[in-house]
């Protein structure tokens, strides 16, 4: 079992426990981040910590003093677990309080958890052949820019996609594509790289930000605008981005081939540029 950090202590995962009255357990009253490490070095750690602060402000959740200590905590966990390539999960909840009540407790101390989580390898041909996706209604709350642990709609959508043999669920609200159940969505429409604006309807992905910056350096046309399901079906290319999946081509949506049914030129240029960014 890995060593994790919980409220100031480093201990084996099986010994890490929280009270049953922790508001993260009772209300999903918490926020989280996942940071990727390559060869022992973090990728975009500062951007992830800035987004954690954004989520905390949006959730009216005061971060404990450990927030400033997170880089050191993570570094120690990598050493303790002898890890080079890893995902590190960070979670803050509002802490435990009695009795259970919806209003914020006055004296509760935030619960802070940091732990390494496995990297789940994608199928060997995922990046060369692409993956499939299905569209589903976006049933989440309207502050998707807060990376909340309240993920039940995402979990259900992801499972329904897997039950249909698809890799991802593409969420749709009022006919507009927002994002995936755990990813951001990009489409090449009329030659332009198009993605939903980073507003309250989507989570502003860190990998999404990197891809937009790389697209600019490659002189690709960029369009941060909403697009419809019909535009998605007719797109020349579609791909998803996330910390864990990086840049992954989508070659089929709802049983329809995207473009010629193979990863497109823009997608692969960005995939290669991202790999170079990671290597650097």
Structure notes:
The protein has 2 domains: 3-117, Aminotransferase class 4, branched-chain amino acid transferase, N-terminal domain (D-amino Acid Aminotransferase, Chain A, domain 1); 126-279, D-amino Acid Aminotransferase, subunit A, domain 2 (D-amino Acid Aminotransferase, Chain A, domain 2), CATH 3.20.10. The radius of gyration is 19 Å and the shape is globular. The protein contains 8 helices and 15 strands. The protein has 280 residues and is α+β, with helices and mostly antiparallel strands. The strands form 2 sheets. Strands 7, 8, 9, 10, 11, 12, 13, 14 and 15 form a 9-stranded mixed sheet that branches.
Throw out a few tags for this protein.
single chain; about 280 residues; alpha+beta; D-amino Acid Aminotransferase, Chain A, domain 1; D-amino Acid Aminotransferase, Chain A, domain 2; 2 domains; nine-stranded mixed beta sheet; six-stranded antiparallel beta sheet; 8 helices; 15 strands
Tally of helical runs: 8
Distance between the ends: 31 Å
Structural class designation: alpha+beta
Specify the CATH architecture of the largest domain. Answer: Alpha-Beta Barrel
Assess the beta-strand content as a share of residues: 25-35%
Indicate the percent of residues in helices: 25-40%
CATH C-level class of the largest domain = Alpha Beta
| CA-based shape | globular
Number of folding domains?
2
Number of extended strands: 15
Radius of gyration equals 19 Å
The helix-strand sequence is EEHEEHHEEHEHEEEEHEHEEEH
Fill in the CATH topology of the largest domain. Answer: D-amino Acid Aminotransferase, Chain A, domain 2
> Which segments are poorly predicted (pLDDT under 50) over 5 or more consecutive residues?
none
Mean pLDDT: 96
Main beta-sheet annotation: 9 strands, mixed
The CATH homologous superfamily of the largest domain is named D-amino Acid Aminotransferase, subunit A, domain 2
């Amino acid at each position: 079992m890995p060593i994790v950090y919980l409220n100031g202590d480093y201990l084996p995962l099986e010994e890490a426990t929280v009270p049953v009255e922790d508001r993260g357990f009772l209300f999903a009253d918490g926020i989280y981040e996942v940071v990727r490490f390559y060869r022992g070095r973090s990728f975009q750690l500062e951007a992830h910590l800035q987004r954690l602060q954004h989520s905390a402000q949006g959730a009216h959740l005061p971060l404990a003093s450990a927030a400033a200590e997170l880089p050191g905590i993570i570094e120690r966990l990598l050493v303790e677990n002898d890890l080079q390539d890893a995902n590190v999960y960070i979670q803050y909840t509002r802490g435990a309080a009695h009795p259970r009540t919806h209003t914020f407790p006055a004296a509760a101390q935030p619960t802070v958890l940091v732990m390494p989580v496995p990297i789940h390898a994608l199928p060997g041909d995922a990046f060369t052949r692409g993956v499939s996706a299905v569209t589903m209604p976006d049933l989440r709350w309207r502050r998707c820019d807060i990376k909340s642990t309240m993920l039940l709609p995402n979990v259900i959508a992801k499972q329904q996609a897997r039950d249909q043999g698809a890799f991802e669920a593409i969420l749709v609200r009022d006919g507009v594509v927002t994002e995936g159940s755990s990813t951001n969505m990009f489409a090449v429409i009329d030659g332009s790289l198009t993605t939903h604006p980073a507003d309250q309807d989507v989570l502003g992905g860190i990998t999404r930000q990197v891809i937009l910056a790389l697209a600019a350096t490659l002189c690709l046309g960029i369009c941060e605008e909403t697009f419809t399901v019909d535009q998605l079906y007719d797109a020349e290319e579609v791909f998803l981005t996330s910390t864990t999946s990086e840049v992954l081509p989508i070659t089929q949506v709802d049983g329809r081939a995207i473009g010629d049914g193979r990863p497109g030129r823009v997608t692969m240029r960005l995939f290669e540029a991202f790999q170079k960014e990671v290597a650097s």
